[in-house]
Amino acid sequence: MPDVANAAPRTPDLDQLREMIVAFARRNGESHPTDLRIVETTSTAARALRGSTSNEPSFPIYVLIASGHFVSSGSRPPGARPPVGATLHVLVAREGLGTVGWGLSPGQPDFETLGTVCSL
Q1: 6 is a domain residue
Q2: In which band, very low, low, confident or very high, does the pLDDT at 13 lie, cut at 50, 70 and 90?
Q3: Which of 42, 58, 89, 115 lies 20 to 30 angstroms, CA to CA, from 6?
Q4: What is the number of domains present in the chain?
């Protein structure tokens, strides 16, 4: 399990985080996301799960997770089809609760490798 502080999100933070993932889902074509979850981890661990690396220092984050039928609202080359996925994940800095990344997956990545996954 990644080395992160054991401080659980405060209730107001959980409410805000829940609102964030639902709004993000709506922007990506899913008005009723299901199976909302959260895991506390580090940016380095999350990048590794996504198959990427960085020389940036690691910092504590929350990974917000939702299931549904998502169609990416992100930019793409002209004429390219938008990416789609069944799982949306949003990376949120624990300090300040700003979005630091997001992605869509066709299946369910192994989020349990990042830490304890809890319902949101």
Answers
A1: no
A2: confident
A3: 89
A4: 1
